[in-house]
Amino acid sequence: MSLRHSMAFITAVAAWAALGLQLVLLIGQMTGNGASVVEAVWRFFGFFTIIMNLMVAVVASAMSLKPSSAVAGPRPRLVTAAAIVFGGLVYSVALRAIWQPTGWQAVADHALHDATPVLFFVTWLAWEHGGLKWRDALWAAMPPLAYCAYAFARGAADGWYAYWFLNPEALNIKQLSASIVLLTAAFLVIAVTLVAVDRFLARGRSEAVRQSGSRSL
Q1: CA separation for the pair 201, 77 (Å, rounded)
Q2: Whole-angstrom distance between the N-terminal and C-terminal Cα of the chain?
Q3: Each residue of 166-214: pLDDT tens digit?
Q4: pTM above 0.85, yes or no
Q5: DSSP per-residue codes, 113-172
Q6: What is the largest CA-CA distance in the chain?
Q7: What sign does the CA torsion over 52, 57, 58, 60 have?
């Protein structure tokens, strides 16, 4: 197994382990307060962080086990990298100061918000590059917009919102719209930056190959 495949495997294992730990902790916490396991699982899938880490787990697994599959292609890797980096940054800026977990919850929290973003980003950097176009960055806007629609639909059904900046019961329409626009814009900036990095690395590696070929002649 090559170094980059090993990195993808480690990232996948870390993501699946973090998701499993968080699910066990949430089920224990909610059932201890009288909720059912089904309610706990439903709550689990209400967090953007969980969904993005699930993307990391699936895509990193495909990169490690079946790198030729569509799931491991350039665009899914880009969307996943943008999503998990975005999630880590938003957590650090908007949520870390108001959430101080301890014990195993702290372990799960750091794994989901710190470890998997770094691991997947490093794996993405180490992977092959040159398969992206500028317009591919637009695909990266899909996860935050889809999540907003999903979060509003869930909230309308059960009255619970995972994040204060996407809570229509706490924000007026102007504030809510500003949150969505800012989050989507930030997501696009990250995606465009990653496409630029992809193109830069592809040119750098092509130049290195050409120079190596020239020296061998």
Answers
A1: 15
A2: 31
A3: 899 889 999 999 988 988 888 899 999 999 999 999 987 655 555 554 4
A4: yes
A5: IIIHHHHHHHHHHHS------GGGGGGGGHHHHHHHHHHHHHHHHHS--S-GGG-TTTS-
A6: 74
A7: positive
Q: Which two tokens stand for residue 100?
A: 């101080």
Closest among 77, 84, 100, 75 to 51, alpha carbons compared? 84
Residue 105 to residue 215: CA distance in whole angstroms: 54
Angstrom distance (rounded) from CA 183 to CA 48: 12
CA distance 140 to 147: 12
What single-letter amino acid sits at 101? P
Question: Between vectors from CA 47 to CA 97 and to CA 136, what angle results, nearest 5°?
Answer: 100
The encoded tokens of residue 193 equal 């930056």
What 8-state DSSP symbol labels residue 26? H
Burial 59-97 (b: 16+ CB within 10 A, else e): bbbbbbeebeeebbebebbbbbbbbbbbbbebbeeeeee
Measuring CA to CA, which residue among 186, 198, 191 is closest to residue 82?
A: 191
Check if the beta carbon of residue 3 is closer than 8 Å to that of residue 126: yes
Q: List, in order, residues 6 or more apart from 167 with CB less than 8 Å away.
A: 155, 161
